[in-house]
Specification:
Blueprint lengths: L16 H55 L12 E2 L4 H9 L11 E7 L1 H4 L12 E7 L6 E5 L2 E3 L9 E4 L2 E5 L8 E9 L8 H5 L15
Helix pairs in contact: 1-2
Length: 221
């Protein structure tokens, strides 16, 4: 008996031009939806990382100030309501060591904290601890990172002098603008400054690589 073998047509069916266009349109729509969401997720993740670093930097600064308060050590270099430089001071080194950083390439681009003015509150029985309480912090991890701020209990990525959560500057004392300690005069202490500009100059605050430019809405990184 002869076996009859049927040969089937095995040619594959190709996509038509219309079908290809439909697929491309669907992919474009999905990209338009997913890419911004993914980009936003990446930015939020980075922001959370920088927030965590700023949070621990504040704890480190407060730990050093609490130690000084416990020892009854007078902050001579923080008198006369002047901002002080800890970027070459043992206390600044101690703050960095508490967050696992050292002078040089691992230290933050900017790390500043603010405490109550020593001269203004040292003789006030009810507020004498303010010169040792960290009421403000500004933290920028590196040259391409956003600034993270702490102002009297609140965290923000916005430049505090813009929204008046801190007032003053330009030769005037810096005052807490909102919060439980509203109106409190603060003295700023620089732990780390790698901007190349002095804290006493406008370049540090509002220059091209200054603190303001690392803040929302100016920072686009």
């Amino acid at each position: 008996m002869k076996r009859i073998v049927t040969v089937r047509n095995c040619k594959k069916r190709a996509f038509t031009l219309v079908e290809l266009i439909v697929v491309l349109v669907v992919l474009a729509v999905l990209a338009a939806i997913l890419v911004p969401a993914l980009t936003g997720y990446i930015k939020r993740t980075k922001r959370e990382k920088y927030y965590d670093q700023a949070y621990y930097a504040r704890i480190a600064a407060q730990s050093v100030m609490t130690e000084l308060y416990g020892k009854g050590e007078v902050l001579v270099h923080m008198t006369n309501s002047k901002d002080t430089d800890w970027s070459k001071d043992k206390h600044g080194d101690e703050v960095l060591s508490y967050i696992g950083l050292q002078r040089g390439q691992t230290e933050p681009y900017i790390l500043i904290f603010g405490v109550g003015s020593y001269d203004k509150y040292k003789d006030d029985p009810e507020r004498s601890a303010l010169p040792y309480e960290v009421l403000f912090i500004a933290y920028v991890a590196n040259k391409n990172a956003p600034a993270v701020y702490y102002v009297d209990g609140e965290w923000t990525f916005k430049y505090p002098w813009d929204d008046k959560s801190i007032t003053g500057g330009s030769g005037k004392p810096n005052l807490i603008g909102n919060g439980p300690n509203k109106g409190t005069e603060i003295t700023l202490c620089v732990v780390s400054n790698r901007t190349g500009s002095s804290i006493n100059g406008a370049g540090f605050w509002t220059g091209a690589n200054g603190l303001q430019k690392h803040s929302e809405p100016y920072f686009n990184g």
